[in-house]
Amino acid sequence: MRISSMLFLCATFVSVPNLRAADTKDDFPVPAGLPALTIPKDNPMTKAKVELGKQLYFDKRLSVDNTVSCASCHDPKKGWSNDDATAEGTKSQRGGRSSPTVINSAYSTFQFWDGRAGSLEEQATGPIMNPIEMSMPSADIVEKKINDIPGYRKQFQEVFGGPATLKNIGLAIAAFERTVISGDAPYDRFIAGDKKALSPAAQRGLELFKGKAHCSACHSGHSFTDNAFHNLGVNIHKGDKGREVVSKLEGDRGAFKTPTLREIARTAPYMHDGEHKTLEEVIEYYNKGGTPNPQLDEEIYPLELTNEEIKDLVIFLKEGLSSSSYPDIPPPKLPE
């Protein structure tokens, strides 16, 4: 990691007094291989709040023309992403970045590819007001639209003790998104002692992941992400400054957040702009050492992987990190 990024991250991690460890064993169980959720003190999780958040997540009425919901770009059937290089908002508008998966975002320190949101609560309302995405012109209009729906008005009163506001809309959606987690994959069972949980090829891929392929330098921890930002040189010529826009540090130019690798087989295409369609393409890109540029991360260099090693690595990513308990949550009945 570049020194500029490290200094910025260290400053960010000095104090987080608003967080507490949550006991989720009963109402919100966590799959094997993952730690207990951490929940903001000002947004405790309840079943009623999560259900309200789920309805809002799937409700296209949160967009200005009733055509786009959170699930439009972060679809459970498409790895909680959208199976496309970029996302389509209202009036067929498109941004320049892909839709990051919601899976295990509960464990992310930062949200969005550039980390501009420091919590799920902050992230949840961003797309609603974004002129390219859901395009709502003001908080007042969002609130009136939701409060004009009797079913929502009743639920917000029960959950929050008052009418819908943009803030508590975000609180509810964030509470739901914290339940979108994936664990208990073959990798977790293998690490726990079941040596038959991974095929021989996947086991070779795991050794490469930790060693020669150098993946674990950034894809570390229970969700296979360091929650940091790295410049890989991906389409650097397009001028997307990435994390630099947020941190104001030149060393963060072209740096984007390390995504989780949980359920990675479901979330193609890959990279912040969807440049690579397959995992094979991604590994080939890393294998050549990315694209040279002044801010290229020090962790990126030619790997000299053989074709067989690339094949084994892909098998590990697909087989080892795909869970049979994938959170395939169906759309709920929406309030009227």
What key attributes describe this structure?
Cytochrome Bc1 Complex, Chain D, domain 2; 4% strand; two-stranded antiparallel sheet; disordered N terminus; 12 helices; mainly alpha; 336 residues
Produce a short descriptive summary.
Helices cover 33% and strands 4% of the residues. The chain is mostly helical.
Low-confidence stretches at least 5 residues in length (pLDDT < 50)? 1-25
Count of spatially separate domains: 2
Gyration radius, to the nearest Å?
20 Å
List the secondary-structure elements in sequence, H or E: HEEHHHHHHHHEHEHH
The shape, in one word, is globular
Oligomer: single chain
Structural class: mainly alpha
The mean pLDDT is 92
CATH architecture of the largest domain: Orthogonal Bundle
- CATH hierarchy class name of the largest domain: Mainly Alpha
Strand order of the largest sheet: 1-2
Name the CATH superfamily classification of the largest domain.
Answer: Cytochrome c-like domain
Proportion in β-strands: under 5%
Explain what the structure shows.
The radius of gyration is 20 Å and the shape is globular. It is 33% helix and 4% strand. A two-stranded antiparallel sheet has the order 1-2. It has a two-stranded antiparallel ribbon with strand order 3-4. It folds into 2 domains: 3-177, Cytochrome Bc1 Complex, Chain D, domain 2; 186-320, Cytochrome Bc1 Complex, Chain D, domain 2 (Orthogonal Bundle). Residues 1-25 have low confidence and may be disordered. It is mainly α.
